[in-house]
Structure formats: C-alpha cells, structure tokens
Design brief:
single chain; alpha/beta; Four Helix Bundle (Hemerythrin (Met), subunit A); 3 domains; four-stranded parallel sheet; four-stranded antiparallel sheet; 48% helix; elongated
C-alpha cells in the first residue's frame, strides 16, 4: 500500500504523490515567539516531526521549513510592558521554544526562517497583489480584497454570506469588505517598522508564511501543515494571497492536527486549564510526554489528563523494560546473526519470530494510512507482549532464540527512530523513571535499602514480626520486596 494522507482541502484521503519524484517540500506554521509554548504547540510539533521522520525513512529527500513569527501585536505589546526592544522578547522565546523542542526530541527542520528576515520578499508579494488588482492601499495599510479571489473559503468550506450574516464585525471604513485582511500595516509611533512603497510599516500575519514558504520551497509545495485552529483564517488567507499572486496552486496536501483538550475540556487560559510545555515537563519525563502525544491519531482530539499521561508513561516503561531484558540477555543490535532454526524454537519463541518478521509490514501499513501512530503503538505493544511471553519460559537461551530477540529488538528500534521514542539507553531510562517515581512516593533509594538491611537483620534474629512490619510498610508506599536465594530486591508497584 502506498502512502495515503487526509487532505483538508479535498476532505478525503488521497494517495501521496509529490510534485518531484523522490523529493518532498513541507512547510509547517511555527510559533509566534512572545511567550512560553503550551501543550497544544507540543502536539503540533511532535506530529509533524513524526511525519517528517517517516517521509525521510521512506526514502524521500525532504525539505522541511518551520518558521518563527517574530513581529506581531502580541510581541510588541509584551515588549512595551517590559520596556525592552521587541527583539529581546523574540530572541528570549525562540530560545525557550528551541529548548522545549530539544527536550521533546523534535528534529531540527531544514530551514527555520524568521519573518523579519524576509521583509523584502513580503513587500514583493504585496506589490504583485496590488498590481494584479487583488489588493488595495488604504492610508498606510494594504488589504487583500477577498471578493476578487473567487475561491476564497475553499479550504475551510465556509459560506461567506452566512459568515457576514452571523458576524459581529465593527465597521472599518478603511476596508472595501469587512473580511478583507491586512497584508501591510502602517506603523504606529514606537512600533518596529520597515520602509515600503506604502510608507513605513510591518507585515500582516498571513503574508509572512506565504513569503517564507515561497522563498525556500517555491510557488507550489507538497505539504502544508499546522493545527486545526489555523484552517481559518490563517491558512485560508495564505491560499488566497499566494494563488492570487502566482496564478498557481499553493499547496497539494493540507494536513491539520487535532486539538488538545484538558480533562475533556477545551484548553483555555480563562478556564484555568492552560499548561505550558515547561510546566508539564516539571512533572513528567519529556520522552513520556512525546509518547503520550502519539497515542491518538494526529487528526483526532487528544485528552490531556494526569491519568492519561501516567498510563502512557507506564506503557513506555513496559517497552523499555522489554528492551532492557533483551539487552541483558545478549540480544544486541547486530548480534547473533545467522539463520534461525524455527523448528527448534518453543511455541512462544516461534510466535515472537512471526511477530518480529511481520512487524515491518504492519508498521508500514499503519504509517501509510495517514500516519496512524496509535496503530503503530498497538503493534509495538503486541510485539512486546510476545517478547515477554517468550522470556517467561526461562532457562538458557539458544543461539536461535538470541537471534530472534535481536531481530525483535531491531524492528522495535527502527520504529522508535521514526516515532522519536525510546531514544535513551534502556537501563538509563528505567533508572531515571524509578528515581522520578520514588520522588513522587516521597521515599529515597537509601531509605529503602536501609529498611531492607534492617529486615534482613530482623529475619536473622528470627524477629519475623519486625520483618513483616517492614515489608508491609514498604508495600503501603508501593514498594514491593522480592525475596530470592540471591537476596532481596525491590520494585515499585
């Protein structure tokens, strides 16, 4: 099966056929850098990072552009409140964004342009739109005339008359139509500004993305992505101004990720359920958060809650535990080569071999079905369960079984590289997870080890009452003691 993607423009899944065989041009709207990014930004960037990784994995030469919007009313307002130059605000929050993305394992795009670096490109497009009759000057502002572009609202599928009837739009005498949008804004006193044919001013929000995508990717691009909240007006306006300027289709495939809800409610500052990435990462491991963001299909809504993230965290722990067990048993990558004698394998081992051999095809089928990461994770857990069943048999592993485990580990790590997960050495991750869990329980490793020593002494003295008391007190704190001939170990419940 070839790759199929859901195209917002057509409202259906379509076979993905790039303009140039073997090459993909992809533009994703970046952030306006005036504040810390929230969990919704995390989802969008992780989603398109996985799409980028999978396209590369599939053999495409991908040029990936993700911008920074570094001039905007919100940026200017914050700079004024703090009494600093707007560039101080943008550089601060570009740094914060890059930090967040690094922690989430988001790969660096091919290009990361800033709007302020492309003022000349923006002015050139606006000039073309004015010359072609799609835009008009009003004072020091320049507006796009939506009535001149016949296909306006083709992406969002809205009806212009219905919108006009239901809109509460203040009359703006500068506009020919209430929904005309600004391409170039006349500068107000004290605002950052640049010289233009229409006087000093700065670009509107929508025109920035058109200019930057065209600069790096040409007039028509393969994929344009972003959150569903950008369909209207941002992406709708991008289409109108870009196609009016060039006379060519702007984008072949429009991809949009779904919203993040908080405890089944829409995330909103007014509701008090607004969480920045920084805040979330103070509580959860960054890799676990990324894993959680992939547990639903990217177009579906995703419900962020403590319970849901903890469940995802537990799932990632299970995968890491299986990887650690395979590593400990000598199933290293590239190790135990040679043929596998399937007939010599026990039933759980044969099942594992079958699942490991079929996994790459199942992985491709899921990802080719509009990047279905939820299905991929289901397939990963299926393989992990098979690993655990095979290892539960115990006993000395045959050379063939080690080779089977090596194969299973290989396909797991290949899928993980595309998803950007389990990128930490298993033992290191599990140790970090254990320390985080201990901190949540309010107990230290040293305290546990001390109680185990005290319990050993009590048992030696035949004080079984104290021994049981120590065991029960630890169990009450979700620490389980495991006795064996080799001594006592422990795990977190």
């Amino acid at each position: 099966m070839s790759l199929r993607v859901y195209n917002t423009l057509t409202g259906r899944k379509e076979e993905f056929v790039p303009q140039v065989p073997g090459k993909v041009s992809m533009y994703v709207c970046g952030v306006t850098v005036y504040d810390h990014c929230h969990i919704g930004h995390a989802r969008a960037n992780v989603v398109f990072d996985v799409i980028y990784r999978y396209l590369c994995h599939s053999g495409y030469d991908v040029t990936y552009v993700r911008n920074y919007t570094d001039v905007d009313d919100k940026i200017i307002n914050r700079a004024n409140r703090e009494g600093v130059d707007f560039r101080e605000i943008t550089e601060r929050f570009i740094g914060e964004f890059d930090r967040d993305m690094g922690l989430l394992g988001v790969a660096t795009p091919t290009y990361q342009p800033k709007a302020t670096e492309h003022i000349d490109d923006i002015i050139a497009i606006v000039r073309t739109l004015v010359e072609r009759g799609f835009a008009y000057q009003s004072g020091g502002d320049v507006y796009f005339s939506i009535e001149k572009y016949d296909e306006y609202l083709k992406l969002s599928k809205r009806n212009l008359d219905d919108m006009k009837a239901g809109a509460r739009i203040e009359v703006d005498e500068r506009k020919n139509h209430p929904m005309d949008f600004v391409l170039w804004k006349e500068a107000k006193p004290g605002e950052p500004s640049w010289d233009s044919p229409w006087g000093k001013g700065r670009p509107g929000w929508h025109i920035e993305c058109s200019a930057m995508s065209m600069r790096f990717l040409g007039e028509t691009i393969d994929i344009h992505g972003g959150g569903k909240d950008l369909v209207f007006p941002h992406h709708e306006n991008e289409i109108a101004q870009s196609e009016a300027a060039t006379g060519r289709p702007f984008v072949k495939y429009w991809l949009h990720n779904g919203f993040v809800n908080i405890n089944s409610e829409k995330m909103s500052k007014s509701l008090g359920n607004f969480f920045t990435i920084r805040e979330v990462l103070e509580k959860y491991d960054a890799e676990a958060l990324r894993f959680f963001l992939l547990t639903a299909h990217y177009r579906s809504p995703l419900d962020f809650s403590d319970q849901n993230v903890k469940e995802a965290e537990a799932g990632l722990d299970r995968i890491y535990t299986a990887l650690a067990n395979m590593e400990e048993l000598g199933a290293g990558m590239g190790g135990e080569g040679g043929s596998i004698d399937a007939k010599a394998l026990k039933e759980p081992e044969r099942e594992l071999l079958e699942k490991a051999e079929s996994f790459p095809e199942r992985f491709r089928e899921a990802m080719d079905d509009d990047f279905n990461t939820a299905q991929v994770l289901g397939n990963i857990f299926d393989l992990v369960r098979a690993v655990n069943r095979a290892l539960a048999e115990g006993g000395k592993l045959s050379k063939s079984m080690k080779a089977v485990l090596s194969r299973a580990r290989g396909v797991l790590e290949e899928a993980g590289a595309v998803l950007g997960i389990y990128r930490t050495p298993p033992s290191a991750y599990l140790e970090k997870a254990r320390e985080r869990r201990l901190a949540e329980l309010g107990i230290s490793r040293e305290e546990i080890e001390g109680l185990i020593e005290e319990r050993a002494a009590a048992r030696k003295a035949k004080d079984f009452g104290r021994s049981d008391e120590i065991r029960d007190s630890l169990l009450a704190r979700n620490v389980v003691l495991l006795d064996s001939p080799q001594g006592t170990t422990w795990r977190i419940k």
